[in-house]
């Protein structure tokens, strides 16, 4: 893991992580909320 943006912010920086053989699906909107908890009106 290494910082790629805003390194001066230390733990709040943007980090790049390389992970092998770990399937994951991330769904976060621009407000930091999970998109998986939403209910849609059809």
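^ Assign residues to that structure.
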């Amino acid at each position: 893991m290494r910082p790629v943006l805003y390194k001066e912010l230390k733990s709040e920086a943007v980090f790049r992580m390389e992970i092998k053989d770990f399937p994951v699906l991330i769904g976060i909107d621009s407000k930091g909320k999970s998109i998986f908890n939403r209910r849609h009106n059809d």
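The chain has one domain: 2-34.
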